[in-house]
Automatic annotation (TrEMBL):
This is Ferrochelatase. It catalyses: heme b + 2 H(+) = protoporphyrin IX + Fe(2+); Fe-coproporphyrin III + 2 H(+) = coproporphyrin III + Fe(2+). Catalyzes the ferrous insertion into protoporphyrin IX. Keywords: Cytoplasm, Heme biosynthesis, Iron, Lyase, Metal-binding, Porphyrin biosynthesis. Pathway: Porphyrin-containing compound metabolism; protoheme biosynthesis; protoheme from protoporphyrin-IX: step 1/1. One of its GO terms (biological process) is heme biosynthetic process. It is found in: Cytoplasm. It comes from the Bacteria. Fe(2+) binds at residues 243, 324. GO terms for cellular component: cytoplasm. Belongs to the ferrochelatase family. It comes from Candidimonas nitroreducens. One of its GO terms (molecular function) is metal ion binding. The gene is hemH.
């Protein structure tokens, strides 16, 4: 006699087929917690539960090592919204050229800016979430805040799981990009929608599209500038450096450039007469295609060559300091400006967990939660 086996293949053919079909069907959606009142003919009223707020930033490697950076870049650069060329062609370039070489080159740059607690972007993103939670706790509002990274950890799915586990059936997603771009804001929305698409019992969802003109955001930027000037004096020029995009993306309808221009103008107005010091450029160009201009580093070099000796640079499109602000701006661009003849280069840090910004973010979220609280 053959010994019994736990394998489904030991079942009778009809039972085996039913089991396999049930398993296949169940795998389409993620499991839901059991509802003790699912079949009650007179179920008790549903409790509204707290409201969830999901803050989504771009992402970061888990460690400043080539292996961790490779995993991060593989996910980030495989997003069709980030790289808009045919995937079959891009994957050949990505797997054959970029991933074998780029991580080792980036590792020293990440190590240079790494904090004791971890990646600056993650450290500040978590600090923002904690500070926002403290505001709502102090106000006695039933709000639960989680931070997530579009690429890397903590993942959007795990953050949504955490919110749902706390009883949140209504979730507001705040992509942490004041200026809308398909490669940042829209891909955060895509990620949340993908998680919802795998749920049988979906939460109610809202999204913030942009907030470049939000009075609290502009006011926090202006306060950051004034505090810096009070401590160090005014420069000859204040450069606002935004992350760049391929020019073709804007030609195809992305509103990012327009949002950046509007942010710069609103900050000029907020600074009053000192707004005349403000100029704008775009950083982080990648590849040979033409990107949004003027470019940040060449602009700084040309200023130094023209006799500008003291400049301040801030990055209004980044709400948390990261590789692009700390290493590229504070490191590379500073060195280029000084080598070209400049005498003083000062980087104004991102808003991070500045109390004025946290208050502005809390006000923004409260408005978006209208009818839910």
């Amino acid at each position: 006699m053959r010994p019994s086996s736990p394998s489904c293949f030991a079942l009778r053919p009809q039972t085996q087929s039913t089991f396999l079909l049930a398993k296949l069907f169940a795998s389409r959606f993620r499991p839901e917690p059991a509802d003790p009142h699912a079949f009650d003919t007179r179920p008790p009223p549903r409790e509204p539960g707290p409201v969830g707020v999901l803050l989504v930033n771009l992402g970061t490697p888990d460690e400043p090592t080539p292996g961790a950076i490779r995993r991060y870049l593989a996910e980030f650069l495989s997003d069709r919204r980030v790289i808009e060329i045919p995937q079959w062609l891009w994957q050949i370039v990505l797997r054959g050229v970029v991933l074998p070489r780029r991580p080792a080159a980036l590792a020293p740059r990440y190590r240079e800016i790494w904090m004791p607690e971890g990646s600056p972007l993650l450290v500040w993103s978590l600090a923002q979430a904690r500070s926002l939670q403290q505001v709502f706790d102090t106000e006695g509002l039933p709000v639960r805040v989680e931070a997530a990274m579009r690429y890397g950890s903590p993942a959007v799915a795990s953050a949504i799981d955490s919110l749902r586990g706390q009883g949140c059936e209504r979730i507001l997603t705040v992509p942490m990009y004041p200026q809308y771009a398909a490669g940042t804001t829209a891909t955060a929305v895509d990620a949340v929608a993908a998680v919802a698409g795998a749920l049988r019992n979906q939460p109610e969802l809202r999204f913030v599209k942009r907030f470049y003109a939000d009075a609290g955001y502009i006011g926090a930027l202006a306060a950051r500038v004034w505090a810096h000037w009070d401590a160090h004096g005014k420069p000859e020029k204040l450069l606002l450096s935004f992350h760049g995009l391929p020019r073709r993306v804007v030609e195809l309808g992305d509103p990012y450039y327009r949002d950046c221009m509007a942010t710069a103008e609103l900050l000029r107005q907020a600074l009053g007469a000192d707004g005349a010091l403000v100029e704008l450029a775009f950083q982080s160009r990648f590849g040979r295609a033409k990107w949004l201009e003027p470019y940040t580093e060449p602009t700084l070099k040309s200023w130094a060559a023209a006799g500008v000796r003291r400049v301040d640079v801030m990055c209004p499109g980044f709400l948390a300091d990261c590789l692009e602000t700390l290493e590229e701006i504070q490191g590379q661009c500073r060195a280029s400006f000084l080598a070209a003849g400049g005498q003083e280069f000062r980087y104004i840090p991102c808003l991070n967990d500045d109390p004025a910004w946290i208050d502005a973010l809390a006000a923004l979220v409260r408005r978006q939660l209208g009818g839910w609280l």
